Structure prediction request, 262 residues.
Amino acid sequence: MSVPILKQADVLIASIQAALSDRDLVELRDHFADQIGRHRSLGVVIDLTALDVLDSFATRTLESIANAARLRGANTVVVGIQPDVAFSMVQLGLSLDGIATALDLEDGLAELAKITKQRGHRRDR
Amino acid sequence: MVIVVIDEVSVTIERDADIVTARQKGRELAATIGFSSTDQTVIALAISEIARNIVTYALRGKVFLSRTEEGGRRGVLVIAEDEGPGIADIELAMRDGYSTSRSLGVGLPGTKRIMDEFQVESSMGRGTTVRMKKWLR
Prediction:
């Protein structure tokens, strides 16, 4: 199952619709790196609302998506981590270090607009 | 003491997609046993971590999921078995932050922390078996 990436103005949005295998995650990472350049995106939002579990591999892959995006000039916000998923991550000792998070897509887009503005990065279109 | 094990499900683990299948079946079983949705997620996460160990280190193995009863308690029993290279130093592998692959090294020690019982048996060249339980509270 591959994850569709939507483009909205300067932002790329990936909404995870089901449980992801390792391969899906790696594919998502590679697509983002490519699409950020193609669309000259300034931000990435990853919506994990439908995700059942965030394990150590998924956490590491999200961190590398965010790091790669940052090196390509885009900020990442992860949204929609469910309460049970968050709780289980904390118990296992996982965190998403250095990645901005928000409650849902709406807050994530607002957060991204704020970060982008702070960096004085917004392009006039 | 009487130990009862019922409703066994087994999932063959040989590719990354099998990890998802194993944790989903584990969650379903945990739900039928009566675990809260938080504990279902914790159990699914534990299964994900030990199934990933099989894919990463042994390439092929099996995860057995069952309901267990012991001294009036009910819980879930998860056994992960592989015939991989084995773990050279279990004590070291159980240490937080230690990994021979490029992972975070939270896998085994983290999984032990979130389950109620956790044992690893391994012999070099013969494989590894992880047995873990979580009890219904």
